[in-house]
Specification:
Blueprint: H1 10-14, H2 22-27, E1 40-41, E2 44-45, H3 48-58, H4 71-74, H5 121-131, H6 139-147, H7 150-159, H8 169-180, H9 188-193, H10 202-213, E3 230-232, H11 241-244, H12 247-254, E4 263-265, H13 287-299, H14 305-316
Antiparallel strand pairs: 1-2, 3-4
Helix pairs in contact: 3-7, 3-8, 5-8, 10-14, 13-14
């Protein structure tokens, strides 16, 4: 969402001065530690009631037309918030066009979806229903299903007090957004930014230096180490058809003369070691290969093997503590 962006320095976040360190000072130009919580969202506040309702809706299969799929079907919180597939498996057994993006830390992104078409997380949460793909349903049908369950009517009334008809598609989206805003994964990199010198290994620090020196940080910046804006894939050299995959077909099917070929949101890199396969097509399974593809295609600067290994080591420091969310009891 565009209204939320972490700008606090490490010292401001943790209330104590941080020892001078040239690498940390350089990194602070691009990054800051994760916030402890996010409650101020676009147009509303994530209250405990909204969060609890959103958690149930995240696991609720009755939002899908088949009654078999929920948000967690594609966004497994124990697997980095993704499904581990090249592209999402839809309820009708067909494969989607794009690799599933992680729901973890998604509240920190300013753009959502691979093509960057959605700037609001609440709209993104209900987007699969609107698109009729992931859930093969419509907002109207999903709302009707919820209204048929009396306990949900009570929970929506608690989460959205004072509204004559609180069970709406907008409130469904706001509740899901409120829950997703809790899915933050603090990592060793955050501890290091906050002043813990021992939180990163020497190899990881060296990899961070390479990451910044090579120019990776100019697109992969912000609290998600990405997720801010979108750029052409292959600024210097287009990747091979094995990575581009079906996107040319997708563009043609859209029949949109204004569409830009191979322009994608910068991938957030938090928990990237957990979210293979990579790229919009999900065609690359090895993180080191993905790093090399980006270096050659985006920067025109092929990496030496030791540089690739260093960046991969740094990316490992972005693997955070996953939220432990037990499936709730549904009405």
């Amino acid at each position: 969402m565009r209204s939320f962006l972490v700008t606090l320095s490490a010292g401001a976040m943790f209330g104590a001065p941080v020892a001078a360190d040239p690498l940390r000072d350089a990194a602070a130009q691009f990054y800051g530690p994760l916030p402890a919580t996010v409650t101020e969202l676009e147009g509303h506040v994530a209250t405990p009631e909204k969060v609890e309702l959103g958690k149930k809706l995240f696991f609720e299969t009755r939002l899908s037309a088949s009654g078999s799929h929920s948000c967690v079907s594609c966004h497994d919180l124990a697997k980095g918030g993704v499904d581990g597939l090249a592209t999402a498996l839809l309820p009708d057994g067909q494969s989607g066009l794009r690799n599933t993006s992680s729901v973890l830390n998604a509240v920190l992104n300013t753009d959502h979806y691979w093509d960057g078409r959605e700037a609001d997380l609440a709209a993104q949460t209900v987007g699969p229903e609107l698109a009729g793909l992931a859930m093969i349903n419509t907002p109207e049908a999903a709302v009707a299903a919820l209204k048929a369950i009396p306990a949900y009517a009570e929970e929506f009334a608690l989460a959205f007090p004072g509204e004559a008809d609180p069970v709406t598609a907008d409130n469904l989206a706001r509740a899901l957004e409120s829950f997703e805003a809790t899915l933050l994964t603090p990592a060793p990199f955050d501890a290091w930014l906050a002043g813990d010198d021992a939180a990163l290994s020497d190899d990881q620090k060296a990899g961070l230096q390479i990451f910044m020196d090579k120019g990776c940080a100019y697109c992969h910046f912000g609290p998600s180490i990405g997720g801010q804006g979108y750029y052409p894939l292959g600024l210097v050299e287009l990747p091979g058809i094995d990575i581009k995959a079906a996107d040319e077909v997708a563009q043609a099917a859209a029949a949109d003369p204004e569409a830009e070929d191979f322009v994608f949101r910068t991938a957030p890199l938090r928990n990237i070691t957990l979210t293979a396969p990579y790229f919009h097509s999900g065609k690359v399974t090895d993180l080191a290969i993905a790093v090399d593809v980006m270096a050659a295609g985006q920067l025109g600067s092929p990496l030496a093997p030791e540089e690739t290994a260093g960046i991969v080591a740094f990316l490992g420091s972005l693997t955070g503590t996953l939220p432990e969310i037990a499936p709730p009891t549904l009405p």
